[in-house]
Write a structure and sequence with these properties.
Layout: H1 2-20, E1 26-28, H2 35-43, H3 50-62, E2 65-67, E3 73-76, H4 83-99, E4 110-115, H5 116-121, H6 123-127, E5 133-136, E6 154-157, H7 165-170, E7 177-181, E8 197-199, H8 216-224, H9 229-240
Length: about 240
Amino acid sequence: MEDFAANSAQARYELETERATPRRCLRRAASRLNDAVFQQMAGSVKLNNKAQVMPHLIDQLCSCLEWTGRAPIAVFTHEAQGKGDLMLGVKTADALRENFPRTEANKNDIALLTAEALHKKQPGAFEDSGHPFTVLDGATPAAPQLDPGKAPTHAIVAPQLAATKNFQKSVGTWGSTVSSTTEYSKKEPLPPGAPGTGYTTGLGAGEVGITFDAGLGAYEQHQDGIEGEENKRAARLENSRR
């Protein structure tokens, strides 16, 4: 815990200096943007659509930049239904690393936080993740006490579970930008008193995917108990009419 707190404090201090001269820490990421694309983007802006189009173009341009400076971000992860839950936290840290390339200075900035109980159960998931991690005491720990000016700039809970409520309710004292993600496409409210914004990791509007019914297991057991393929087909047809 001491190493995590010390690194966060140092990162916040250095980040303030880097923000004063951001061009030193920004670099263009690999992308297909070229002069032809820039001209096309400029040509798409009209008097009657600039209010709608410009924010999207700015987002596109910013997505092609990488920040190589300090990036103190904490990802708290836990599990309820197995290793898949905590791997969402690991993958969240992986995704952040793609946008904040590892340097000698920031190599410990994007860090995983987890509960002692989970680490004892799944130590390899953290040791093999390639990210620094800190183990918090207990089964459902609260956020450690950190001064707002020395805490990570961002705290992410991935995924949001019953076991993460204590952390979510207490992390607001950090003064960080807080966000939480669910483990599926269903939108869930944040725990009462928890700060931040909730997101889903599922499909967005207009996207196509497969959703498995929660009763699929019971349906399969029912099918297995039916003798004869003809009777099975009849039962499947009856189930589809419900």
